[in-house]
Amino acid sequence: MARPTFDDLVRVMATLRGPGGCPWDRAQTHHSLRPYLLEEAYEVLEALDAQDSDRLREELGDLLLQVVFHAQIAAERGAFTVHDVVAGLHDKLVRRHPHVFGHVEGIQTPEDVRARWEALKREERGQAASALEGVPSALPALIRAQKLYRRATDAGFEWPDVGAALEKVREELAELEEAVSSRDGAGVHEEVGDVLMTVAKVAAFAGVDAEQALRDACGKFTRRFQQLERLAAQRGQRIEQLSLPELEGLWRQAKEKEG
Predict the structure, then answer these.
(1) What mean pLDDT comes out for the span 108-113?
(2) How distant, in Å, are the alpha carbons of 86, 118, 127, 243 from that of 90?
């Protein structure tokens, strides 16, 4: 039996959506599929974090299903087909890599490529467009913050150095402390956002992906907390039975065990 091709996958999706197909698939819309698209993207990230190639292959397939599914829905209303999606992506990649497919010279480093890519995107958006146009509001907040800062930086809006960015973090922390002290709920909400925005800028200055840094920190906290739970269980106790000094002692042990 021949190995299924991409076109075979497209035909399967059309059959599922067609007369006599699957009732669930036929009932779906662009809107109803939104949570699945997000879920599958995050499952790809988990497979990457786990460095699990078999799982990554499977999760990329599930993510591809979402692309084919949305394209099929669009095709049914005459908007575009999945082949239009592929053609558009092909043309974009060629257009935005003139140093490979054209005659542009002087692009030697990944930084050169990114700068050229962003310049081409600005040309495509038009000179009248905002530098921030096109940054999706649905992005995870830290990713969005860094993309907004990167666009602003490319437009010339930039702090002089990382020291200035750190000073801004201290300034925002002071304002947060003031809001907390005054029990100003709305103020705390706003200042927490400002602190996170400025921390994202410091990360950008340092060449750190703020979203990934926080994901890694969440993973580290999870491992240490679960180790703390195991240590408490070895003592025949639950963590809610322990005093704060006892919990701090177990936390230090958990950190030491992790190395």
Answers:
(1) 83
(2) 6, 18, 25, 61
The DSSP H or E segment spanning 111 is: helix 110-125
For 190-217, write each residue's pLDDT tens digit.
Answer: 999 999 999 999 998 888 999 999 989 9
C-alpha–C-alpha distance, residues 73 and 14, integer Å: 9
- Which pLDDT tens digit goes with each residue over 81-97? 999 999 999 999 998 89
* CA angle centred on 185, ends 184 and 189, rounded to 5°: 115
- Measured distance CA(106)–CA(103) in Å, rounded: 10
List, in order, residues 6 or more apart from 66 with CB less than 8 Å away: 33, 36, 37, 40
From CA 242, how far away is CA 248, in angstroms rounded? Answer: 10
Find the angle CA(194)-CA(198)-CA(204) to the nearest 5 degrees.
150
- Mapped to the 3 state alphabet, what secondary structure does 151-182 carry? HHHHCCCCCCCHHHHHHHHHHHHHHHHHHHHC
Kindly state the helix (H) or strand (E) to which residue 229 belongs, with its residue range: helix 210-234
**Counting beta carbons within 10 angstroms of the beta carbon of residue 159, is it exposed (0 to 12), middle (13 to 18) or buried (19 or more)?**
middle
Whether residue 17 contacts residue 25, with contact meaning beta carbons closer than 8 Å, is answered with yes
| Distance in Å from the first CA to the final CA of the chain | 51
Nearest to 100 by CA among 114, 90, 111, 113: 113
> Mean pLDDT over all residues of the chain?
90
Contact of 179 with 191, CB cutoff 8 Å: yes
- Token readout for 190 is 């706003």
